[in-house]
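Thread: quick sanity check before group meeting

JM: Hey all, I'm pulling together slides for Thursday and realized we never actually wrote out the predicted structure for the chain we discussed last week. Dropping the sequence here so it's in one place. If anyone has concerns about the input, flag it before I start.
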Amino acid sequence: MKVAIVLGSIPYGGIENLVFDMALYSKNYNDLDFQIVNVAGVGEKLNEFYDAGIDVFNVCTSTKDLKVYRVSTLRKLKKVFAQLKPDIVHTMNFSADYFSKLALLNSKTPIVTHIHNTKIEEHLHRRALNRFLSFRTSLYVSVSKAVYDMVEKMHNMFKKKHIVLYNAINLGNFKWIKRTYPKNHFNLVSTARLMPQKNLDNLIKAFAKIHKEYPNTTLTIVGDGKERVNLENLAKSLGINVVFTGYQKNVSFYLYKADLFVLPSYYEGFGNSHIEAIATGLPSVVSKNVPSIEITRKCTLVCDTDVESIYKQIKRIITNPKLYDALSNNTKNLLQQFDMNNYLLKLYDIYNELLR
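JM (edit): ok, ran it. Output follows.
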């Protein structure tokens, strides 16, 4: 079974990490052949795919080729599909979905449209294209119930079959450890792209309040992005030392050094970084907009996105050793829900059903 997994580009991000792990685990299946198609042909994470021995079919040479009016991109993608002859095309974001559906407009190849975010497309013409092209979708896959509701409202005009499939991670990269309440020093960590949606400025402001009351606390932010300079300047202006590590391939190193994970995003599709933290036994504080809370409530405190709410929930854990231990212990029971092997078994059944 040949499945073309189509991405717009391959930057650092949750979708790309998911596809990377899918490709690695698929090597355990003799009759499942993932063919990774990169429409733009570029991306910071592309070399990691190559280093892991994962072949990538690069269609174009620039993110400029993802503009919706690029007929040349459509023609090139058509040629790639003609060469690969996939049994199923599985798209992972708007650009991949848009160009794949147009390229396969007169084909009977099933298309799986995988939606990873609750954010509604800002541009009206792209939103309209999403809705119109839904007739060419064979199956919608949403990464959470929150995404499912958005897709039904904004995408699925032709009422195609639609399921929820929670994301998974490579548990081989993470080892669960029994956490003990840190008596002398409390290290907070957030792993995220440094983008406005992650609300890290309010996290830093909340941490400033925490640090004023509890000087033996630290905050480490793992990741990179366009907001880095602004966030570094904010931390300096508040007189606090926040460690910015930049992008790291091995985020588990920083998770093991931490005592609490925090992600106060304005919106998410699921929250892979949250489940990576859970896989190491960390209790968490995340915003109500991180849909991973649909299945992680027993090991997570939920906050709003404002500074005061983030501060109060962090403080609840810092000041309550019993709560800390309970949240950490509850992480262990969730691990199998995030196992990539189980995830691929579900996908394998989905693909087979589409081909019947």
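AS: nice. The longest helix spans residues 340-355. The longest strand covers residues 2-7.
JM: adding both to the slides.
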